[in-house]
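Dear U.,

For the methods section draft, I wanted the exact inputs and outputs in one place so we can describe them consistently. I've listed the two proteins in the order they'll appear in the manuscript figures. Please don't edit the token lines directly; just add comments below if something needs changing.

First protein:
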Amino acid sequence: MERVFTYIVDKHIDRRLAGARPSEWLKRAFENAPHLVVESEKEAGLPAGADYVAVIPSTMPLVTPSALAEVVREMERRAIAALEIGEGNIAAASAIKEGAAPKGILRTDAFLSVDRAENIAKIERALYRRNACISVQNGANIPDVDNVRIDFMSRVSYGATVSPFTVINASEIGEGAVIGPFSVIERSRVAAGAVVTQSVVQDSVVGKGATVGPFAYIRMGSAIGDKCRIGDFVEVKKSLIADGAKAAHLTYIGDAEIGLGTNVGCGTVFANYDGVEKHKTKVGDHVFIGANTNLVAPVTVGDGAYIAAATTVTRDVPENSFVIGRSRAEIKERKRKC
């Protein structure tokens, strides 16, 4: 293969495609190939030892060294010394010395420009696919690389699985983790061996071996500990959940700290808002919270406490205590029958 030196002309385009500016995609693609980033085409010269020189504007983020190498092989086969490629050009060193003008125009998907609105979606799909393929090359399991969205800032580790219709933005997926389908992971870290199914995780951390979902929502700086269970229709907001704790279904946990091995029953609500300010709830280790419980913040529940189902907690609960607070049911005969 002939040696190609590439000048990347940075057009300073602010628009982000698949998580990065077009120039950032080009810099990544060419990081192991001879290249120089310049402000203008006028800075392009003829570097010593180069057989071909390519000038690529940052409006073409899909260009790669392998794409240019393919163009060079075709130029040599057809005895073409200089060629326009999209909005850029490539020329043999001899043609540059002689000042020869390009003899033809090559337009393929590799040289699509973001300057044309109709190309944007096609370019972005290709960039997402490229990232998915890079993850596969690094040992990830992605069965359908055309139907996942892994952006420029994300990293999917060896052995992790990303199922179709999953979106991963600015996030890190640990070894052996399983994500998706239909999950959204944004600005978050999912540790090794965790499973996130049909759920949203934003600005948060999911610990090793934890399970989230389906249909869970983790947000605003929450931290889910190792081997936790956050089940279906559970929302966690700005909360710390220690290792081994569980909230299996239909629960809202907001502005809370939950201790080791604690069980949060179905239908439990952490009532953190009094209409003016948000307040915190602290729940100790190995606490059992029964179904349909309301914890009205600010409140603290001590280690080992047991809260009976349908209880509303409005004051602190001592360690190893039993709490029950529900209205007595009265059964009366109906005066009118159906």
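Second protein (the one for the lower panel):
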Amino acid sequence: MAEEKEVLLKVEHLCQYFKNVKAVDDVSFDIKKGEVFGLVGESGCGKTTTGRSIIKIYDITSGNIYFKGQRIGAGTKSYYDAIKAAKEELRKGNPDASRRAELEKIIEDNKKEIQSAKFTKKNCDKIFAKSLVEKLTEQYEQDKAAAAGDSAKLAELKKKYDADVRVAKKSKLVTKIQMIFQDPIASLNPRMTVREIISEGLIIRGIKDKEYIDNRVYDILERVGLVREHAGRYPHEFSGGQRQRIGIARSIVMEPDMLIADEPVSALDVSIQAQVINLLNDLRNELGLTILFIAHDLSVVKYFSDRIGVMYYGHMVELADSDELFRHPIHPYTRSLLSAIPLPDPHFEKQRVRIVYNPIADHDYSEQGPTFREILPGHFVSCNDAEEAKYREEFGL
């Protein structure tokens, strides 16, 4: 049970800006080892940008991302903004000696944070690779001592050690996170065979044994429901569901600890959606994967996810266990999303009332802005003091 509660990924105050567009703004959450964390919201709310920022396709603007306890992403804008504000107050505010010392400390601390963030960006992969080499060397020394006097065994150990070290030196921590992309057609190179697509990551890592690579490709193909004869074909020779299986195979061949599934079933037929979801569920159980599942189909998310985060215009507005969120939606936007889920019951559909979310009418943030708060155990909502009091009253807290 302790292992299940281990936090694998931690996102702190993530901001991803593209010039003046705040695609993701101050988003925080964590994902525990072995769970499926669903991220939902309407198109354009920042779900995919969050996933791409975590896997370092984008350099994040502000915030921190930790994976397996090591910081893999760090932004600097918030530190520069804090320094700028402190210098502005020093120049124009005419503070007393106590406040001046406080402002100077803020400037100094944020300069250190900027240097730390830059160090993380430049060296996190080197630190990870160095730790792998050290573990391999320690194990090799133990095995060598155990095989002392057996020249054939020692030669075999040395050959394996050299090959493993070559791979370890090229390893990056972020490759332990792999991504399944939304469009199974656009995400596959049409000029590459399935074998080349799946094995590309292994080759980049430094693996040169062709027989090993081919066996890995065949094994992974069969694991995702394809056959080894498919390895020599090109993407255009497959259906949409088969292409998505190839995308899944490409990600799990790297033996990741975590998958980011970016709307992996939205481009597929309903029957194929069920097959892909069941495949991901099987792989999760077989390989012990942790999954960040990005989608806008709430019915699929409820079936597949352990916890769900709801995003709106770049902000996280609600986060709770899957059953809890559907049983007690608190934020008006979440209630609006849930009211839009169609059910295969014509009598219910005739009576279903669609809730329309209007942030201007539903919130008054003129005096106090919202923050992320725990209303029920494990159930977080973006709200201010007045809204928190109203929500607590609703639940008799």
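Candidate sentences for the figure legend, describing the second protein: The radius of gyration is 25 Å. The CA atoms of residues 230 and 292 lie 28 Å apart.

Thanks,
Y.
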